[in-house]
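Bug #77: duplicate submission created two jobs. Keeping one. Sequence:
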Amino acid sequence: MSSALDRLKNLTAQISSYELERKNNLKTLEELYQKLGIVAKVAQFNDLFHYKAINLSGISLSDEDLGSIKEGKYTQIIGIVYDKAAKVKNKNSSLAYYGRSEKLSFELKSDIIAFVLGWRFEKSFRTLEHYHNLMVQLKNLPREDQC
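Kept job's structure:
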């Protein structure tokens, strides 16, 4: 019985730490949104989450070489929207442009990476909540034999 209680305690602690991390992430993300000049393209912070994805050019985000510069490339943060009614479904928008990747300061590069990863972290929570809400709706749909 104690192992079940231990698992529950561990799970509760993990969920609490995720929520704390999420709260801290949102605060940092909003600060970076201002600092990196993204506010010039997206006037309201919460509108950032209307994007289906946010990508980065010129700097690697892969596990193997996180933060490595792609020589000769330009760094920009790119927002991607999906429009199922449009002929071209995905539309890319430059949210911020920073010039040649190899000329970025270490601090700016770190802030850019932190913004993109932080946005993805928060977006994953919002996606999880969206699908959780859909599952609740599904459970509450009237069954055919009840109609």
